[in-house]
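Lecture notes, unit on protein representations.

Consider one protein chain, 358 amino acids long.
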Amino acid sequence: MPRIDTFLRIAADQRASDVHFHAGKIPAIRHLGDIVRLPYRRLGAHDTRAFLDEILTPAQKEQLEREQQIDFMYEVDGLARFRACVYEQSDGPGAVFRVVPDRVPSVDEIRVPHSVQQLVTASNGLVLVTGPTGSGKSTTVAALIDRVNRMQERHVLTIEDPIEYVHKSQRSVITQREVGRDASTFASALRSALREAPDVLLVGEVRDYDTVKMLLGAAEAGVLVIATLHTGSAAKAVDRLVGACPGDVQDQVRITLSLTLRGVVAQRLCKLATRNGRVAAMEVLLPSHAVAHLVRENKLHQIDAYLRSGEQLASGTRSLEHALAELVLSGEVEEREALLHANDPAVLKEIVAKGAVP
């Protein structure tokens, strides 16, 4: 058994989200969002490389030497799968292993709001799931794909780098393609996506203008596109998408986006007051005439005010502050924890002080 499996087993047993394994540092896990060092010595560069060499294939070692970094999935039989990122850093090699459970969670288990669940019933359009690194985006997306798989007869195509959650076809036909293994590049996989006749297309991350152009084209062509971004709010996700495009096409992108956007989910993971887990607080932006106008007219800075007004709560649209306030008022999350994640702490305090979400 590779020696690094011992550290990975500790992470899985402790329900940690990550293992940090770096030359020059003591191995650590991330538990409930906090870094916790393990009872082990500081790693030297030679020892770290020897640990990692035990799990890398010859091809992966060659790629690491050539590119100075590599992403891949690593599985410990009977335990879990891990999304691994191995790279060179100032003190020598380093690696981060993210725990990916063997079983795909359901939308009910991770408490995805009904309005978000309904997003994947759309026949076409664009759904964005956003949040900082480690906010649970991959888990939410996997649960949404699982809902499609259990309830609809559709062809779901995923393009990932690497594949995290593995889906087995149920009512839907699931095709998962991993960049570097099943497609030479992310761009080539995207270019061939429409020829593979998907009803639902999952793209692991929006990276550049070419990706935006292809995703919007697919959404217009009748495909439901689900994509992830690294931003802190729904408004910033839309802004990032438009900002990835050259200036001379941004007006047209905004018009297309105003017509094809089906929803944006921006989430944060909060520690439960019981300290026995975390729960996702989800900001939800659903389409409306007002949202379409703000996107089309380049008034994206007004989206936050629109969300925080609370006028659309009955429809399922809600700000991150409303989502956090619900968790605080129910006693599930402490107010001081919620304030760490709020985009506008003053607004959150105001809602909590009223004693109820409007």
